[in-house]
Design a protein that fits this description.
The chain is α+β, with helices and mostly antiparallel strands. The protein has 2 domains: about 100 residues, Serine-tRNA synthetase, tRNA binding domain (Helix Hairpins, Orthogonal Bundle), CATH 1.10.287.40; about 300 residues, BirA Bifunctional Protein, domain 2. It is about 40% helix and about 20% strand. The strands form 5 sheets. Strands 1-11-12-13-16-10-9-4 form an 8-stranded mixed β-sheet. Helix 3 packs antiparallel against helix 4. The longest helix is centred in the N-terminal third of the chain and has 38 residues. The protein is elongated. It starts with a helix and ends with a strand.
Amino acid sequence: MLDIKFIRENKDIVQAGAKKKLVDIDIDALVTLDDERLKILKEVEDLRAEVNKVSNEIARKQDSGLKVQLIEEMRAVKEDIKQKEEKLKTITEDWQKMMLQVPNVPDISVPEGTSDENNQEIKVWPASTQGGGEKTVFNFEPKDHVEIMTALHMVDFERGIRVHGFRGYFLTGDAVRLSFAIWNYALEFFSSRGFLPIMPPALNRKENFLGTGFLPQNEEDLYKTQDNDYLAGTAEVPVMGMHTGEILDKKSLPIKYLGFSPCYRREAGSHGKDVKGLIRVHEFYKLEQVILCEAAHETSVKHHEELVTNTEEFIESLGVPYRRVINCGGDLGLGQVKKYDIELWVPKENKYREIASASYFHDFQTRRLGIRYKDEEGKMHYAHSLNQTAIATPRILVSLVENYQQADGSIKIPEVLRKYMGEKEFVN
């Protein structure tokens, strides 16, 4: 959430930011509504002050007739207050709804665009002297991950659909062992970089989704329980919610978490897309980097680059080709100031596929959640927040399996994972 004072003082900037993010909101209408809210609020406060003043006078009056007169006058004033309070309540609710829909202002470096097709490539690995990135070279016709994993009894889609329905799956055998190997390796890798491992609850109150900016816009993509709670689609939601309403010790900043959680997404807007395989499933597991830091743009930018570097170096250690893109305005969420996507090479599709996103939010989330700290002079600030996917499974298996497939149908296990796989070199 943006500060209403900032919105009022920078109406054109906020409106332009909304346009860049393709968010339909009238900032002038919001300011007009805020004017009305403040006007009625002052009227209510003035009338309450009048009631308090006259009540003190009534207590001091000796003339009973005058007392009765003043009491009657105050009764009318109290009725007026009641009516204005009801009006204020309605206006405030409308104002709050609009405030929750105001997007954060994107960084000036964010390109224009309407979808992920307009994201701009800024890095490829391994780099090629001819330009672009080096891709995995095969001396045979490569297969896709579905064919490879099915043949090796690593996945069962037929029974997955029978149990869960569309996009259901079972991971079996070495696919499970590979997943655990990736998790264990990631736990060691990111912990060594100062991130505290944490396993948060997947069930979350609505307030956590409002606070992180996943609501009110994206409710159709969330799983909701009969108790009006929601299943989180990323550990970012509960990890941020953990500090709701807290005043943090400035000396503790930056706070760095590595959240591990099951994730649930309805993929409501993806009908007909990626219907085959493990690319777009309804439930998966993810390790998420989350940072809370001091309220300075330069600090957010520094940690943003740190987060994306962590994940890139993790992927490089696995030996999977990737690229980094900067997301355009139309591919940013409500609260994101800037976002990078990391995309892994999928040989059979001859394209890169998104595996991780790195975002910073300034105080957009923390203002909603009430996460603050005191500086050296005792002044209160809302902390800044950032997050970056460390790695997501089973999606990582798509690129891992396809890039490491062998001519005989086996899969070569990346060297860094072998110690978690009983020193096996191949899945066969």
